[in-house]
Amino acid sequence: MLQKISGSVIGFGLLLFLLGSTPAKAQNATLSGYVKDASTGETLLGANIVFLETMKGTSSNNSGFYVFPSVKPGTYTLVSTYVGYNRYEQEITLEAGDDITFDIELVPESFETEEVVITADEVEQEKQNVGRIDISTDVIKDIPSVFEADVFRSIQLLPGVKSASDFSSGLYIRGGGPDQTLILLDRTTVYNPSHFFGFFSTFNPSAIKDIQLYKGGYPAKYGGRLGSVLDIYNKDGNRNRTAGDFSLGFLASRATIEGPTNSGSYMLAVRRSTIEPILGALEGSVDGIPKAFYFYDVNGKLNYDINSDNKLSLGFYSGADYVRVPFADDAQAKLWYGNVTGSLNWTHLFSSKLFSNITFTTSHYFNEPELSLAGTPIEQQNTVLDFSLRADLEYLPSDEHQIETGIWTGRNLLRFNSSFDGEETFSSRIAPVYVSAYVQDTWRPSLKWEFTGGVLTNYFSEGDFVRIDPRISVEHYLTSTTRLQLAFGGYSQFLTLITNEAFSGFDTWLTTGEGVAPAYGWQYIAGLKTQPFESYRFDVELYYRTMEDLFELDPRIPDVAGLPYSDIFRFGEGRAYGIELFLQKGIGDLTGFVGYTYGVSERKFPGVNVDPETGKERYYSPKYDRTHDIKAALTYSINKSWDITTTFTYATGQAYTLPSSRSQLINDPFTNDIGDFFTVQHVNDARLPAYHRMDIGATYKHSFFGVGDAEFQIQVINVYNRSNVWFYQYDFDENPVDRNAINLLPTIPNLSYSVTF
Amino acid sequence: MKYLSFLTFISVLLWIGGCDLTDDNQSYVKEYVVEAYLEAGSNISTLNLSTTAPVSDLYSFADFAVPNAEVNVYHLSEDGTDTLDTIPFRDHNSFDGVYVPLKSHTVQGNGRYDLDITVTADNNHKISSSTFVPAEFEILSTDNDTVVYQLEQFEVTYTRSDYRGRQNYLIVTVVAQDTTNYGLTPFYADQLDDDDVTKEDFISNSSGIINEGNYEIENNTLTIQLPWLAVAFYGPQELQTYTIDDNIYDFRRSQNTQFGGSTLSPGEIYDVIDNIEGGTGVFGSYSVKKSNTFIQEPSFN
Fold first, then answer.
1. How many CB atoms sit inside 10 A of residue A583's CB?
2. Residues 164-223 of B with CB under 8 A from A
3. What global pTM score does this model have?
4. Residue B158 near residue B221 (C-beta atoms within 8 A)
5. What is the pLDDT of residues A421-438, one digit of tens each?
6. ipTM for the complex?
7. How confident is the model over B207-225, as pLDDT tens digits?
8. Other CB atoms within 10 A of residue B45 CB
9. Cβ(A553)–Cβ(A498) under 8 Å?
10. What is the C-alpha to C-alpha distance for residues A58 and B63, in angstroms, rounded to an integer?
11. How far apart are CA A343 and CA A129, in angstroms?
């Protein structure tokens, strides 16, 4: 074991070496502090801070902390910017040997609506690393959505991110499936972040402070997934006054309250379905209406500042969905699934140059479907328990180096049981221990160059696997507003998800094990980020990634009972490549973004898509692959009271299999049925009709009886009622066989009313 | 002006959206289709030979039947080196594409059988396959002659044997013996509300493939409880328990995923696994045992 985590030890050794080898520059000053929202006291993550005179800059970390470790004495103009906030400028004088703590408070733009503030291009440039994109919760709330504002639905509008269908909030990023994205809430892994069986995500937009999406090339501090990372942070709570909001919607309503405590803050956000009365009214007149249905989620956070150097934060999330549907005499389906997560975070400043975060996390995901058919119960219980401890250190010995290191260790407990007619048919209990450790150094030899090198070492006890993943990135300023970025990295994955794009309520996680090696892949990314005009941002990224040793439940195994663990999987490979263009306008009456993606994703599995001539497997596209897509999300502010928001998506139709012929088996000895079947020459070689959809929403902002601000939203989904095809279904009761198009969402209106006080 | 540029942009997007790009021009590829099932302990039966049809064409077996082929089945030693018997087939007198054995042959459990077809009309196209027949097994006991629906349990105990180093794959079929005098159980009766469903659809109810690993095995015997889901009618029933060979297992499991119900995305259809060279379909074998019971409608008085 010790030998196997030698990479981690080497990492820590490297850190110690660097700590010891960096000369102190006593003649210089140190400036550090937190970047906060002036109105709420919330820390702001990823805010840019720059000394205007030298253009030396940094950004706040995921705790909102920033530091300039070595500043020559003098008087400077400190500038800070953050999307949605007014530019901050403050003159500051630093003496030799100073170690000053200076918190920066940014004023939200909405507080000064008369004043349009244009941020300096070069300052705004600091923020986005390669592969990374941030999305504002205000944008999420404004984007037209089916029933409920949703984080994942909004993310699906970004270039490089695709959806499986209108019914799925699953994230398919740069050619990877949903299990290739690590989803974190307050540093805690969330295993099935969906409500309404996948229709939208569990994250309540009212509770969220910050959303960071790494579409690829993510840094060494993250691991365990082949593709991407979605790092979400809940609000800490308003530190200045008690505040809150509530929102009434068709499907669900939500309420949030937050405020200060003696030495910190609290936040509590609750959301619950409110569609039950509508379902009750439809029961009896419409088939398939559930007898019982609800979902809920609760987000909470409690912060306690022990002193200026020690801060504690306790966060939790609990959410679940329940449905019971009798669908025939003596037949009923029930499903109960959800997540509970908790995190206890301790932020400690050893000094202004050495910052630490220690987090204990727990995550519990469960799903328990039950089907009863003609007195025959069919039941399943799936549980994932994850207890982990992670510790991260950030050390800035000088302006040139930023060293990060950490360890993340924990234990999973994955249980999967199924039974048929009261008899257990499958039982699995796996309790792997995982340990990962990383070290990373960001070296800025000049204002124009930044090199980041890191390594992540992973140990996974189930199968006794050790993987070492290197991560390298380079950034170069071609001009003051144009950056070239290159990144390369290795990524490993020890889990796989059994899921269905139409229904996520049964999602089941499985791990590596005996005969089941971890999947791994390499990512190569090149990006160009520019600000061609004031308030405009234009990004281009190219990516190529490989996926080796992919393991997933073999879809053609009818029954896993009694099979060796490795026999229930199929093992394959994949590759994905593409280019993404992203144009964003952040300021003015018209804001929003337009993105274009050219992307290809391919898979190869034994016995699938075999070339009849050579007998060898060929690559094929997964269904969610769309070669081209154009997406736009635009908001036009007509006046102080009215905003109009529209989103539009145009995409190549998804891949599907066009059978090459059909036949029948007519002498089946086991049943009366005729055995229709297709022969297939090429898997997923055809394309559904192009997908396009426009959603429009209008928001009317007004005062709520003088005690708060209110918003009335009216939205129309699929405004021109495009009949987008989800898939084709074949009806063999007809001769010739009838191919029916199963369509996605028709036109759907949506109303909501929100009050903030 | 700002309104105009906004509307112009939206119009451009709508125009782009109006263009559909679709590629569904995959051409028909003809394949020969074999259908033959060898039952251990029974006389070798007929074999069907046809071709596949274009997906959009009217289909009937007769229209795509392939007559006048040379068909032979060989009973071989397990290692395939010795031919123990040769069973030639000839065209059926009345039905094209149906081939009948020219001699009687009792299919041997644990035996190996090879198929060899030559389609002389198609440049002597060759079709071949091989099956290993599951061993025969015995019913040791049945617990009740009559059981009350959903209140009692019907169990059958069988002897078991390995099949080529793997567990047995089973199919359990319940065949209602009297659908005139006995009605449907509630779940199936409710299905008749669907216009396309008739009572006859439920006479024979098959379980799909069940792994032997689902059941407890003691002293090399296997006890199967009849799930109530399998019982569509009250009254007399025949319970048929099959153990199937790899060819039937592969074909049925791959055929079932073509029409949903698996973790595959809808519309992602894979070819069937047929284990046939030069064609597709099934050249398979099985062993079966049958038992009887009577399902009594419960009385709630």
1. 17
2. 167, 169, 171, 173, 185-191, 196, 200-201, 203-206, 208-215
3. 0.91
4. yes
5. 888 888 889 999 999 999
6. 0.90
7. 889 999 888 888 889 998 8
8. 14
9. yes
10. 76
11. 27
